[in-house]
Amino acid sequence: MLERMETGADSVVGFRFDGDMTAQDYTGTLIPALEAAEGNQPIFRILFEIVDFHGWKAHGHWESLKDWPGMRKVDRIAIVGGERWEEWMSRLPGLFVGFTGIDVRYFTSDHLDSALDWLREPIVLEGAAPEA
User: Fold this and answer.
1) Please, are residues 76 and 45 in contact by the beta-carbon 8 Å criterion?
2) Which of 3.40.50.10600, 3.30.540.10, 3.40.630.30, 3.40.50.720 is the CATH number of 2-120?
């Protein structure tokens, strides 16, 4: 299951995975939230918190996300998860690879606040002063 989570920043879209991610999670939750952020922010960031991840049932949607046109507005992705998530990532190391031009960082579940702090850092647009 995938659900939205509050991040405390308009420029950060947060999601919590718990169990399996389905095609409905992708088309009904993930993409609509990302499309809304894309329409409202010149640059935005994504947080994925992995609570009790069992697997993907998204039928290729994850690969489609990497090619989604709105990803050009994403400059950072934080993935937060526990030991089980780290073990699973070692089996599929390419899962978060391929997001061209995006800084992707991993945080353990006890560092969720650090991940949010990193994502909330001011966004600097080319040719513009840093946001306050």
Assistant:
1) yes
2) 3.40.50.10600
| pTM of the shown model | 0.82
Name the residue among 80, 64, 53, 51 with its Cα closest to residue 23.
64
Rounded CA-CA distance 97/65 in Å is: 12
Distance, CA of 128 to CA of 125 (rounded, Å): 5
The 10s digit of each residue's pLDDT in 102-120 is 898 989 999 999 999 999 9
- Residue 129 token pair: 């002063």
Are 52 and 80 spatial neighbours (Cβ–Cβ below 8 Å)?
no
